[in-house]
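S.,

As promised, the benzoic acid run. Input:
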Amino acid sequence: MALRLGDIAPDFSAETTEGTINFHEYLGTGWGVLFSHPADYTPVCTTELGAVAKLKDEFSKRNTKVIALSVDGLESHRLWIDDINETQNTVVNFPIIADQDRKVSELYDMIHPNSNENFTVRSVFVIGPDKKIKLIITYPASTGRNFDELLRVIDSLQLTANYSVATPANWKHGEDVVVAPAIKTEDIPGKFPKGHKVIKPYLRMTPQPDL
Ligand code: BEZ
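Predicted complex:
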């Protein structure tokens, strides 16, 4: 059955470039990103893994661990990492799952046979500290992902996990946020002392509360 938001991210053990990993143990008590790419030694994937390596500090700041996956084997991953490091001027600093038996790909429905029978698509799962799936996105093989967007969504998820707010279209860290509909307008000043604007009774804005 397809995974949906709010489901527990299925646990698994897998061989990775950093040894055997149990997924839930690897995530620990923090946030996680599991992302698949179609194949090793392909141009778009090479740029993607390099981009994620360069963002390691940004993910760490958000208490988020990343882990990649493709259906190629460990030896292939290891040799390809040398190419990524060389061409993208970085050092791959996160594990890549060698999912040759497709166990994890199938568990997470990452192979879309009508797109390609043999390879995973570009799936992304963001997982919260409660091990529940908070975000699922699927990109086509030919489109490299925007990992700044992923950081933006994690910022939004972490904010809304702690405050009764949501984030509006194109929101970025530091901008005003939306007060959750469940909060009565008369209760806003007590909860959001930095101020608020009532644009419509259902559209109330307040400065980002954790700054
Ligand atoms: C790539 O990573 O470059 C790629 C992979 C599969 C299809 C097209 C491009």
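The first strand starts at residue 13 and ends at 16. Residues 147-162 form the longest helix (16 residues).

- D.
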